[in-house]
User: Which sequence fits this backbone?
């Protein structure tokens, strides 16, 4: 791995510390032409309760079907936080910054929903530290011809 990739991953790791989901903190950085053009971390959308305040979006929603909120969180993951990649793409869109031809550096590989967004946004390569629990996102990216690289910690 060349030095620039290592440097950008260090930035993504630092961004992850800003994540407001106490289940998993994730950071993402979009780079184009050697410059950081957007970044994000996972957490509740602006103005909405954070994961610690609403138990990751579950409350008592699953008690009707026999699952506690803790069991639902374990089985399905957080449903409150916006993923870091989506936040980075949303910021770029709001600011009118093109991500076409960009590279994503992210601490956890994208889920399938984020992968679809990255494909649509024109991201051409993805560097990540750890694999997400479901490989479908990586499979979609690779199917779309987007290079995916795991970074050794």
Assistant:
């Amino acid at each position: 791995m060349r030095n620039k990739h290592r440097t950008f991953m260090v930035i993504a790791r630092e961004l992850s510390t800003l994540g407001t989901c106490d289940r998993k903190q994730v950071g993402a950085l979009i780079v184009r032409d050697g410059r950081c053009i957007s970044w994000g971390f996972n957490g509740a959308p602006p103005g909405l309760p954070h994961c610690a305040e609403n138990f990751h979006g579950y409350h008592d929603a699953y008690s009707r079907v026999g699952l506690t909120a803790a069991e639902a969180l374990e089985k399905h993951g957080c449903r409150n936080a916006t993923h870091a990649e989506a936040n980075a793409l949303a910021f770029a869109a709001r600011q009118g910054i093109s991500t076409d031809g960009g590279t994503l550096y992210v601490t956890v590989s994208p889920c399938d929903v984020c992968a679809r967004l990255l494909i649509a946004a024109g991201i051409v390569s993805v560097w990540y530290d750890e694999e997400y629990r479901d490989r479908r996102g990586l499979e979609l990216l690779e199917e779309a011809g987007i290079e995916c690289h795991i970074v050794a910690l």
Remarks:
- Helices lie at 3-16, 51-54, 69-76, 84-95, 112-120, 136-143.
- The chain is about 35% helix and 20% strand.
- The first strand starts at residue 27 and ends at 32.
- The chain has a mean pLDDT of 90.
